[in-house]
Amino acid sequence: MSDEILDEITASDYKYGFTTDIESDTVPPGLNEEVIRMISAKKNEPEWMLEWRLDAFRIWSEMVEPEWPNVTYQKPDFQAISYYSAPKQKKELDSLDEVDPELLKTFERLGISLDEQKRLSGVAMDVVVDSISVATTFKKTLGEKGIIFCSMSDAIQEHPELVRKHLGTIVPKRDNFYAALNSAVFTDGSFCYIPKGVRCPMELSTYFRINEAGTGQFERTLVVADEGSFVSYLEGCTAPSRDENQLHAAVVELIALDDAEIKYSTVQNWYPGDANGLGGVYNFVTKRGLCERNAKISWTQVETGSAVTWKYPSCILKGDHSVGEFYSVAVTNKYQQADTGTKMIHLGKNTKSTIISKGISAGKSHNSYRGLVRVGARAENARNFSQCDSLLMGDQCGAHTFPYIEAQNPTAQIEHEATTSKIGEDQLFYCNQRGIGTEEAIALIVNGYCKEVLNQLPMEFAVEAQKLLEVSLEGSVG
Amino acid sequence: MLKIKDLQAQIEDNQILKGINLEINAGEVHAIMGPNGSGKSTLSSVVAGRDEYEVIGGTIDFEGEDLLDLAPEERAHKGIFLSFQYPVEIPGVTVSNFIKTAINESRKGRGEEPMEAREMLAKMREKSALLEMDKSYLSRSLNEGFSGGEKKRNEIFQMAMLEPKLAILDETDSGLDIDALRIVANGVNKLRSKDNAVIVITHYQRLLDYIKPDFVHVLYKGRIVKSGGPELALELEERGYDWIKAENA
């Protein structure tokens, strides 16, 4: 029975695997200083930005690709990637009505009609297709509160002082190989600034889409929450099905000043490759946030896509009484590999962190949790609670846990709990006997297992994430 | 309603059922008794469709349809319910969410519309009250951290919600104290009607004081070796199973 159903999954299609026929402006493949100058020039960037990129490029040129993650893959050929691809647009857009109708169709197929989003859910949205941000909704509404929410390109033009002050302060250029690469070639992304004491009245959201073949996506997101402010931010991502591996190397930096709170949620559904492990997105991402005094950063991620994922959304708890949280569901199926987790760096006194990680492995996939909890010498009374659960489906997948704990202060309290379980025949038969078919039973059991994490997502996205989990695991039986 | 003819089943080459014959009509309550290892739980698993058991002979006919052709969930849609001896835990899935899914999947299986939320809620309230369950119970994770008695009550609650035609209670009395036993039996009795039937599998006469059977069968070494009325259960209570074993040695 199991084999049959496993075959079935492999046949189930990636729903977002279409491509859109949009005219694109793409630079030839390859990476050198010339290409970086070209990108910078196309974006009409100021001199300081170009210098910053070139510096990053020089740093990157001397670095080597890391080997330590628990994944195996064909290393990307960095000279074969095109680093800039933009949907061609005839002129500046004043409203969504002027967006290329083909592009709007793409959004509709993704189930995110921007108009609908605008009217119904009150979500402000930025959409990045290939390298370029194509539409930012709700700019005016947000503007009235002094909130800046725009593409990174616009931010460099319109708010250079803010970008220059914060960019690269949390994830420095030389942080790691892919962060350095991103710093050199990032083409767009989102920028968000919430002024002092302002509570952002709506969810802010960015949707990423790789469309063009042979391109990489290198977006850069920077969120600055000024003192006492609050913002909830969500990103979603999809890509067409292609035989080649596409590279996605993003950097996200969050800054929560005194008493501020940032809630950052991700629903990642890049193309995972086909049933035989051909194609799929390499998702090598650096995400980190800094908490000042009494600030809070909460990362929530639902990771179902990508051939290879390598990401550790982290919190630097610098300020006293600051709080870091990480809630994660990572699903791997077929030949997917994920090495994901978090780092909680406790520097301030009375800092607190919570880690809830739920891994689900099916097919021939491998799913690793890798996490670091570090308590610095001055972090009196730091507290951490970690819970890492793994759920296995079938007998050909793997789940791995690599927890690292470094405590330099004797008052630290660190708790780590871990479980590994299988969806049992007993559970399935019980559900079947109550009239629930095997597919629905798996969805029910998995959703129950992930509940603590799904509960952290904004309402409208929790539903989407739940459906995504069901689709990703279609047919995988324990 | 249910006609079992010469049913033979095995698990991993070990034959457990060696030719069961049993006929059950609407409105009847049958008790199946017998010593440990006689095949009582195997019989209920085979009727419910558990695929670890391989049927190697005989037929099961349910309302004119061959049950053996149907998947477990399809049997459930037809109105077969098994109260498990050891109900499983499903962490993070609330009792109300589980039963809602079960009801609506069953309705879907029968080509019916999902139950309206208001009706569902009212029904849950009514049935949980019938089983004297606390309000908070509906929002707890299914069977997680439940006491033995709570698990069994939860089984009967689900039965009350699903309103099956044929309910099989597999040692529902085990692990119940006397109050819980009364509540569970009361729940079962309230659901009895001329249109449905109940099979009670038990070791002891105790449950049958509360759920009065019309027929009592003794299962021993994979066969029904004796059938009779309620007096047979009393006799077994008094004399134990040794005389049955001796008769069938």
Give a topology summary.
The complex is a heterodimer of chains A (478) and B (249).
Chain A: H1 2-11, E1 24-26, H2 33-42, H3 47-61, E2 85-87, H4 101-109, H5 114-121, E3 124-129, E4 132-136, H6 139-143, E5 148-151, H7 152-158, H8 160-166, H9 177-185, E6 190-194, E7 204-209, E8 220-225, E9 230-238, E10 245-248, E11 251-256, E12 261-268, E13 280-291, E14 296-303, E15 308-311, E16 314-317, E17 323-332, E18 337-346, E19 352-361, E20 366-375, E21 383-392, E22 398-407, E23 413-422, H10 425-433, H11 438-449, H12 451-454, H13 459-472
Parallel strand pairs in A: 3-7, 6-8, 7-9, 8-11, 9-12, 10-13, 11-13, 12-14, 13-15, 13-16, 14-17, 15-18, 16-18, 17-19, 18-20, 19-21, 20-22, 21-23
Antiparallel strand pairs in A: 1-2, 3-4, 5-6
Chain B: E1 2-11, E2 14-24, E3 29-33, H1 40-48, E4 54-62, E5 65-66, H2 72-78, E6 80-83, E7 90-94, H3 95-109, H4 117-130, E8 141-142, H5 148-162, E9 166-170, H6 178-191, E10 197-201, E11 215-220, E12 223-228, H7 230-239, H8 242-247
Helix pairs in contact in B: 2-3, 3-5, 5-6
